[in-house]
Each structure stands twice: as structure tokens, then as C-alpha cells.
Amino acid sequence: MVRNAVLRDALGIGVAVGAYGLSFGAAAVTAGLSTLQACVLSLLLFTGASQFALVGVLGAGGSAVAAVAGALLLGTRNSLYAVRLSSLVPVRGARRAVAAQLTIDESTGMATAAPQGHEQTAFWATGISVYVLWNLATLLGALGAARLGDPGVIGLDAAVPAAFLALLAPQVRDRQRLAVAVAGGLVALLAVPLTPPGVPVLLAGFAVVPLLVRR
Amino acid sequence: MIWAAVLAASLGCYALKLAGWSLPARWLERERLQRAAVLLPLPLLAALVAVQAFADDREVVLDERAAGLLVALGLVLVRAPFLLVVVAAAATAGVLRAL
Fold first, then answer.
1. CA angle A134, B8, A199 (to 5 degrees)
2. Do B72 and A161 touch (CB under 8 A)?
3. Could you point out which of A71, A104, A134, A181 has its C-alpha 20 to 30 Å from the C-alpha of B13?
4. pLDDT tens for residues A82-99?
């Protein structure tokens, strides 16, 4: 019974994340990537915020180095998720290599919230469900955007900041986090005229420093 | 150049994931490191919102994207589903441009 509920939730999350996948595929093509490049990102990189950041910086004319640096900074939290998961989901060898790829916000959230004894099921079911649906949705989104032509005309360029806002909103849980986010946005805008595209986003990362020094 | 970025970011992000599964836990359980990794997405995502909505190459501009972002903010505040937020922002900018 509990196992069925866990599996149902895993599928539900996969479907919800599919919506992000559609807009990621569209955003990638809008930014100038090919459909194949968009799909390779979802297959190999497979961590939503990093993928959006990479294509966002490339689309704005940023260098490959700035784009990769932004994606990596956003990917660091997956290392900490993996530490947490390694105590809940005991795996070795080749299975661990697969588990690593499935280490993302959703699978970690489901595994840590699962009833005792069902952590492994929750992790694998959520990871696989999100992986399959995210990749299918990326392909559909990329094909759809590739057919639409000039992205500016139908406002697809305005969809990208909205997507980042929707990724950001659930993380703003208190005033301190709101302050860090607002500071990051301001730092980036101040840096836009002064630095090459892509660099403003990296500079915004320094907004966390005051919070680490205090206490 | 795009392929290089795609493959480098994929390799790097996979290495970050695998590191957490493979390194001794105490290496990554330092409190300051944890806080940094948890908080880092906030300013980065906010910066991406700002840059994608208000930057045109190296200029800060106010155009139809800002109107789209305002609509998105309203929808996010009432916890609208992701796809609705994104589509509404795009439609707002698209309609304003067509006027």
C-alpha cells in the first residue's frame, strides 16, 4: 500500500517536471542550440537549473567558460544531496554510477520525505520517472520551438526569465533568503554594462558571502 | 563552442554528483560549505531572472520582457503551475509586441 503511494507520487512528480522540460527544450532552441544539443544536455547534464543557466548565458552571448561556470555553481548542491542519499540508499559499483546521475532536487526530496523503509523505492522511482519524462519533454519542447521560427515574435524570450523566477520562488522561504536573492539580482544588473555577458551571473554568487561570514 | 560547453558542463556536473556519493561524508559536511551550497542557487537564479529580463547585450533596458516578468511574478505569488507562468509571460510579451 505504502509502496504504491510512493510510486504514484514519483510518477506525479515526473509529470509535473515534464512541464519544465518542455520549456527547457524551447528555451535551448531559442538560445541558439540545436535540438540534438538540447537533448544531449537533458540526457547527460540532467539537473534543471544548471541546464537553464547554461543555455541562458549562451543565449545572451556569454562565453562558454562563463556558461559552464554558472552551471557548475548551481550543480554544487547535488554533491550535498548525494552525501545525504548515500546514507539512505546503499548502492555499490555500477548502480552507484547510475544513482549519481539521478541525484537531483526531486529524487532527494522524495527519498528524504519517504516513510521509513521506502527511501530506496522513492529515490529510484522518482529519479527514473523524472529522467524519462524530462528527456521526452525536452525533445518535444525543442521540436516545437524549432518550428515556431523567430522567438521574439511570440514572446519566447520573455518565457526564460519567467522560468527562472518560477525555479527561484519555492526557495525564497524567509527574509534572509529573499535578501540574498534581491542582492544577487541587483549585483547582476549593476555588472551588466561593466562585464561581458555571463559574468554578471557569476558575480551575483558573491551575495551569499555576508551570510557565511556572520555568526 | 556550444558543444564544448555542453560536454564540459555535463562532465563537471556529473563529477559533482558522483563526488557526494564517493568522498568521505565528513569532507562535505562542514557547516559553512553546506550553507554556501544551499544558499548559492538563490542569488544565481535571481541574477538570471534580472539578466534575462532586463539586459540587451551590455545594456540594461526596459522592454516587453519586463511586462512578461511582472505577469509571471503575479502568477508565482498565487502559486500558479510552472507551465502557466511561463506561457503567460511569453504571451504578454508577444501580444505587446504585436500591438
1. 95
2. yes
3. A181
4. 988 988 898 988 999 999
Determine the residue among B38, B42, B83 to mutate to test chain A binding: the one whose Cβ has the most chain A Cβ atoms within 10 Å: B42
Task: Of B10, B38, B37, B53, give the one whose Cα is nearest residue A68.
Answer: B10
**Alpha-carbon span A181 to B44, nearest angstrom:** 8
The answer to whether the CB atoms of A188 and B50 lie below 8 A apart is yes
Residue A178 inside a domain? The answer is no
Query: B27, B44, B82: which to substitute to probe chain A, counting the most A Cβ within 10 Å?
Result: B44
Q: What angle do CA B16, B19, A171 make, to 5 degrees?
A: 50
Does the predicted TM-score (pTM) go above 0.90? no
Task: Say if the Cβ atoms of B16 and A79 lie within 8 Å.
Answer: yes
Q: How many CB pairs under 8 A join A and B?
A: 309
- DSSP-assigned letter for residue B58: T
Q: Is B2 helix (H, G, I), strand (E, B) or coil?
A: helix
How many angstroms separate the CA atoms of A180 and A192, rounded? 18
Domain span including residue A70:
2-151
Calpha distance B94→A30 (Å, rounded): 14
Secondary structure (3-state) at B56 = strand
Contacts of A112 in chain B (CB under 8 A): none
* CB pair distance less than 8 Å for B42 and A23: no
Residue A126 is assigned to a structural domain of this protein: yes
Number of domains, chain A: 1
**Cβ contact B51–A200 (<8 Å):** yes
- The per-residue pLDDT for range A173-213, each reduced to its tens digit, is 899 999 999 999 999 999 999 998 888 998 998 998 888 87
